[in-house]
Amino acid sequence: MNRLRMFAYAGLLTLLPAAGRADDRWENGSYGVDDDGVLTPNELVHGSVQRGHDLQGENDQDWIMFRSRARHSYEARVSSGSTAWDFGACPICARFDRIKPFPHTVLTPGVPDGMNINILGAMAVRWIATASGPEEFLRVSGQAAHSAADTYDVELWDTTYFMPRFNNSASQVTILVIQNTKDSLVTGEIYFYNAAGTLLSTQPLSIPAQGIHVLNSSTIPALAGQSGSVTIAQLGGYGALAGKGVSLEPTTGFTFDTAFTPLPR
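Predicted structure:
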């Protein structure tokens, strides 16, 4: 069902009881538009931070839409001082998941991202998009009766890293040096593109806590004689990596460094 058709039904929804509807500023819009389901007009983009959602009501749900880009990685996070999140064994705690509608399917379940393992103050969803669009959703689910005091904040980041230059043509070779800044394993994918934007090669990435990954791109057959750009999609969250590409000129000993950079916050 396309979104235009869904919004055509919005007027009909005003005639139906709004069970569990909360009263924050994402609720009770004109023609029954709110964030209680896939009809929501609420959207997150990179760098968005929404403060003051609530879970008022019985089993309230808040839906947030976003549009992903192929081979980019993302991190969505909820945090709160007043809403407890499910740590895996709390049937009355709130949930946070990435959802595909029609039928509703959990694509990426939220994982604990807080300090207190007994009453979590935060959950995160991290994933690598396999395709651009279509619309997907983040869903916050209250698992019991909550009050207007059960509030939370939600944010979304594109966590992809970009390096605009690698060169394995002529007499140059490019070596990637990538650091894991986290205290846990970070995995992902390294994508090499030519200057026209054609994907040349995909390489797996796995770096232990505080570790280093070194990749000589000239040893990859698909990159022989090629030049272009590099991106890294990763599941460590925003700021998980640091790194650069070092282009070597063996005949002269010169080196040219190009840093990996994330999108600015």
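Summary: DSSP finds two helices and 20 strands in the chain.
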